[in-house]
Design a protein that fits this description.
280 residues, alpha+beta, Multidrug-efflux Transporter Regulator, Chain: A, Domain 2, Multidrug-efflux Transporter 1 Regulator Bmrr, Chain A, 2 domains, 3-stranded antiparallel β-sheet, 8 helices, 24% strand
Length: 280
């Protein structure tokens, strides 16, 4: 390295102190292609940066402090419109903040009233003809996406609770089917009753299949509130089954009785149901 170049470059330790980053962070950003060093000594492997790279390094540090993912930072540094990229990040943070506020409200209720013990009733359900859409979630956090994919394939919105009733007297609507154990690939399905005289009549929409939801004896609990705050209701339902020695057969059913387009989240009514096996 000639003397002019040497004077223009900063060793990684000095550059890290200048930019208030650690050497480990700089190495990681280099591996990701966000901030490669200006020169790497081929003999020693030492990394050097130009002082002019400090603004970019400080920008990375600032955006990380604001919980901007590294992938989004890469988009910004590559010249993508920062308003679009950071607007997307802001929307995600706002959604997470809203979810955490609802979680906090649920925790406050648990603190005030103790662990939930919602009433559970045993009901007899007939078998029902449905149109069924299926998708696999890769993790519990991916269940929302899988559910949305299924609903889109069905092409049927959650009906108005005042609409036509189904075969058993419940409002016509969607039924979500979710695994009890949240490990490994998670099969998710959404069904719409074909017996309810819905907008698509008795034929399943393209990309879905006609199926039969088994009938039988079910334990049922009523959840009132946002869909993503159903944990206390699940707690009551599964605890009731365990205490009575009932093995849970098949997926958990969520029967949506309210139309989220016209119902505030705090008043959404959902029936959580599990098919009961004989006590062990």
């Amino acid at each position: 390295m000639n003397e002019d170049l040497e004077e223009a470059l900063l060793p990684i330790g000095r550059f890290a102190r200048l930019c208030r980053l650690s050497v480990k962070q700089l190495r990681h950003y280099a591996e990701l292609g966000l901030l490669p060093p200006a020169w790497v000594d081929p003999g020693t492997g030492y990394r050097y940066y130009r002082a002019g790279q400090a603004r970019e390094a400080l920008s990375i540090g600032l955006l990380r402090s604001l919980d901007v993912p590294l992938a989004a930072i890469g988009e910004v540094l590559s010249g993508t419109d920062p308003h679009r990229v950071l607007g997307r990040v802001r929307a995600g943070l706002e959604a997470e903040l809203a979810r955490r506020r609802r979680t906090l409200a649920t925790l406050e209720r648990v603190l005030g009233a103790g662990l939930p013990a919602l009433p559970v009733e045993v009901v007899a359900e007939p078998a029902r003809r449905v149109a069924l859409a299926r998708e696999v979630a890769v993790s519990p956090e991916d269940i929302g996406r899988a559910f949305a994919v299924c609903v889109a394939r069905l092409g049927v919105p959650v009906p108005d609770p005042g609409g036509p009733a189904g075969a058993g007297g419940e409002p016509a609507g969607l039924v979500g089917l979710f695994p009890v154990e949240l490990e490994g690939p998670l099969p998710v399905a959404v069904a719409v009753l074909l017996d309810s005289g819905g907008p698509r009549g008795r034929r399943p929409p393209p990309g879905t299949e006609a199926d039969l939801l088994p009938g039988g004896s079910f334990a049922r609990v009523v959840h009132v509130g946002p869909y993503d705050q159903s944990a206390p209701a699940y707690h009551s339902l599964l605890a009731w089954c365990a205490e009575r020695g009932h093995p849970v057969r098949g997926p958990v059913r969520e029967v949506y009785l309210s139309d989220p387009a016209v119902t505030v989240p705090e008043r959404l009514v959902t029936h959580l149901m599990v098919r009961l096996g004989d006590p062990g």
